[in-house]
Design brief:
The chain is of the alpha+beta class. 37% of the residues lie in helices and 31% in strands. It has helices spanning 2-14, 45-50, 55-64, 88-93, 101-111, 170-178, 195-223; strands spanning 18-20, 27-28, 35-39, 67-73, 78-87, 117-124, 127-138, 141-152, 155-164, 180-181.
Length: 228
């Protein structure tokens, strides 16, 4: 974890142009009836109560972290978040389709160097996604955080799912399969950015997603009187 914290600092220095964006971006995502969900701009009263947070705090979190969507199962054992950002890398690449197999392969090798981290490229609804998975353990048990990352219309989208156990749950996979981004592919693009921007940027948001989801889980456990 110390290595990752150092990586975060490096990434912050590298990503000189970074902004939260895409609050009004069109996307589609489906969850089952036993989920409480909210989009950016929605009334967050119900979901904030489930997460043991104040509405103001959750609204602030949405605004500061580029959060477009948040969903939590009734038992709080499965959580999903969607966020979007514009940074130097997403602006230069424009769309993940412009990354060739070699660039994707180099990136996957870089972010998968730690044993607990697995990474692959998959196709979903016609768009490539980099999938990064971490299995974590604490006194509350074992859980998995899976991130589905893509670039579209100069924005980097992160769909992060949390579930108990040491594998991505079928529920998270089902939600991901329903996910669509209603963006358009640009006509042309000149990509010439060092791979370090890819590595630093994606690892940065992997760490941020882990801290966010673990924090929410801990809040829920505390509200239920569980030991963490």
């Amino acid at each position: 974890m110390k290595i990752r914290i150092i990586t975060v600092v490096a990434a912050l220095l590298l990503l000189l142009t970074f902004s939260v964006s895409a609050a009004g971006y069109e996307y589609a995502i489906d969850t089952d009836a036993d989920f409480t969900s909210a989009k950016y701009g929605d009334d967050l009263t119900e979901i904030s109560e489930k997460l043991n947070m104040t509405t103001d705090d959750l609204n602030t979190y949405f605004s500061k972290n580029g959060l477009l969507y948040l969903a939590v199962s009734d038992d709080a054992k499965t959580q999903v978040r969607l966020s979007a950002f514009t940074d130097n890398f997403s602006s230069a690449v424009s769309d993940i389709s412009y990354l060739d197999d070699k660039a994707l392969g180099e990136f996957m090798s870089a972010v998968s160097e730690e044993d607990e981290n697995s990474c692959e490229v998959i196709l979903n609804n016609g768009k490539k996604f980099i999938v990064v998975k971490d299995t974590l353990k604490d006194s509350g048990g074992t859980y998995t955080v899976t991130q589905y990352i893509t670039i579209c219309d100069n924005k980097t989208f992160y769909l992060a799912g949390y579930n108990e156990g040491d594998q991505t749950s079928q529920e998270i996979e089902k939600i991901f399969k329903s996910f669509e981004i209603n963006g358009t592919l640009p006509q042309s693009n000149d990509y010439n950015l060092p791979l370090i921007y890819v590595i630093a940027g994606i690892i940065l948001f992997t760490v941020l997603a882990l801290f966010m989801i673990v924090g929410i889980v801990n809040n829920v456990r505390k509200s239920k009187g569980e030991n963490i």
